[in-house]
């Protein structure tokens, strides 16, 4: 029997530098027994060993929100129309509720049913930009159903669209590929080896972790692994605070290399300041036995469970207090490590794929009923 065909994609380079593309690669690998997938993306290095069966490189030059976005979306729509004629998918998965490619899918879909999938950055943008909010509303309006990773994001999408589409919102919790066993080796000393990993942009608020380090009672060490626009400002702030010997910057690492580094640390600091879709790297760290200190955002407390400790987002004093709390209680630290690993077992990517499979099958069935 021919497997139904999903057309999806993200107008980002085909690289593992974004949680969205990593998540998509994981999910569609596990959907492949029941579906075949064509993934659309911008040009990448060509070296990433992703799990998409087929990829198509987009030609349109990306433009962010602003005066050029409409032209970009129109060019993408023309590309997508031709791709739809060539590939004739059974269903579209529109990743992000505000990206240009999702808008192009919306305008080109015709009678092809569409599942849109919220990722977080799209919802944050819509909360702050009228243009982004208009795009999100158009995509949600055209979607057969909208998959969201948690109830907090479902509420945000509902509010942003005037509470008109609540019956279309389906919560499908995200997950990760689980390791065979935790790898972290917690120490008992009071000087913690802290890790911050992820994209260095304003919403990830890495600056909170750096400024907290200046406020702790103990001389903890922070390693920041990642790349992004905030790196120059972060480096400068480390110098201003006299923390050069206590903060190390390492460029973005592929996921397998990052996982291998988890054993070198005592805790992950997860400093996102606003809405978070899932907290991919935080759950990955937990799966390897690292406790997490996180900004207490809607949805994260449930996602991270008892293997994590919250602090007030954006408040370096609050973060410093929680870090010192862990440092002063080695027994608590070990208990947190065990709880973190146990919590991560709730977030198996296979479960995410199974639920997305069921949702997609229902949408296709309804379209042909």
Provide keyphrases for this structure.
seven-stranded parallel sheet, Rossmann fold, 42% helix, 2 domains, 14 helices, single chain, 369 residues
Can you summarize this structure?
By secondary structure, this protein is an alpha/beta fold.
What does this structure look like?
By secondary structure, the chain is an alpha/beta fold. It folds into two domains: 5-175 and 348-367, Glycogen Phosphorylase B (Rossmann fold), CATH 3.40.50.2000; 193-344, Glycogen Phosphorylase B (Rossmann fold, 3-Layer(aba) Sandwich), CATH 3.40.50. It is built from 14 helices and 13 strands. The strands form two sheets. Strands 3-2-1-4-5-6-7 form a seven-stranded parallel beta sheet, sandwiched between helices. Strands 10-9-8-11-12-13 form a six-stranded parallel beta sheet, sandwiched between helices. Helix 2 (69-87) packs across helix 3 (100-108), helix 4 (121-128) crosses helix 5 and helix 7 crosses helix 12. The chain is globular, with a radius of gyration of 21 Å. The model has no long low-confidence stretch (mean pLDDT 94).
């Amino acid at each position: 029997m021919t497997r139904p065909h999903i057309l999806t994609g993200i107008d980002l380079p085909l690289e593992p530098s974004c949680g969205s593309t990593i998540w998509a690669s994981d999910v569609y690998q596990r959907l492949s027994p029941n579906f075949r997938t064509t993934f659309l993306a911008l040009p990448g290095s060509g070296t990433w060993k992703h799990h998409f069966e087929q990829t198509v490189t987009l030609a349109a030059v990306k433009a962010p929100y602003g005066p050029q976005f409409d032209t970009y979306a129109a060019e993408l729509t023309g590309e997508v129309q031709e791709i739809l004629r060539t590939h004739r998918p059974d269903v579209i998965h529109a990743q992000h509720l505000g990206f240009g490619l999702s808008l192009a899918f919306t305008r080109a879909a015709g009678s092809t049913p569409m599942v849109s999938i919220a990722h977080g950055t799209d919802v944050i943008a819509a909360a702050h930009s009228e243009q982004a909010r208009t795009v999100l509303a158009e995509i949600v309006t055209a979607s057969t159903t909208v998959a969201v990773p948690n109830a907090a994001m479902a509420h945000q999408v509902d509010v942003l669209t005037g509470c008109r589409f609540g019956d279309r919102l389906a919560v499908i919790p995200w997950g990760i590929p689980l390791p065979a066993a935790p790898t972290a080796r917690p120490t008992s000393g009071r000087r913690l080896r802290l890790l911050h990993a992820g994209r260095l942009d304003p919403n990830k608020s890495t600056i909170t972790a750096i400024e907290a380090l200046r406020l702790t009672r103990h001389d903890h060490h922070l390693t920041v692994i990642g790349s992004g626009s905030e790196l120059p400002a972060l480096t400068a702030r480390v110098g201003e605070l006299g923390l050069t010997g206590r903060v190390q910057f390492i460029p973005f690492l592929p996921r397998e290399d990052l996982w291998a580094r988890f054993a070198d640390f005592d805790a992950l600091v997860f400093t996102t300041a606003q809405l978070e879709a899932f907290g991919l790297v935080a759950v990955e760290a937990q799966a390897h036995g690292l406790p997490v200190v996180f900004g207490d955002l809607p949805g994260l407390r449930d996602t991270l469970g008892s293997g994590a400790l919250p602090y007030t987002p954006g408040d370096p004093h609050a973060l410093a207090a929680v870090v010192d709390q862990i440092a002063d209680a080695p027994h608590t630290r070990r208990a947190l490590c065990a709880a973190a690993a146990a919590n991560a077992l709730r977030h198996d990517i296979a479960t995410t794929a199974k639920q997305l499979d069921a949702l997609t099958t229902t949408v296709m069935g309804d379209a042909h009923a």
